[in-house]
Amino acid sequence: MRVLQIRSVVVALTFMLSAGRLGAECVPFPKNLKDAAALSELVFSGTVTNSDDKFLVSFDIDRVWKGSLTRHTTLVVIATSLEADHASFFKPGKTYVVFAYLKELVPEPGSTEVPAGSPVVEISYCSPTALVSDLGKRIEQLGRAKAPR
Fold this sequence. Notes:
The protein contains four helices and seven strands, in the order H-E-H-H-E-E-E-E-E-E-H. The protein is mainly β and 149 residues long. It has a six-stranded mixed beta barrel with strand order 1-4-3-2-5-6. The longest helix is centred in the first third of the chain and has 6 residues. The N terminus is likely disordered.
């Protein structure tokens, strides 16, 4: 199984769907990235090294502004709707700044895809998670980053 072969931190990642699909309003993050980081539990930048376009996304993390992550981190994408391919948002070779929340994982009975007790990371549809190139100089608003562990 691919998840067990990866020698890195395994994190489960869920995306919130658009407000229109959920029938709820999207509460926007602050425009200032430092303020947006204050609302997140993990903030990091990294280059996608692998994505299966369905569940797994691996990052080579270069900077961490909030939280504790290893250089090579794999996110296990948990689908929350009929649109199961949320991992396709992350393209290999592209570098992203990711704003995320930690959530409790409740695996489906009999599921072996994600080890029990794995932390879940949720990325809000409204978060400023984006390509580094799209954020440009705004990244400086985050202040000094630390290296991954």
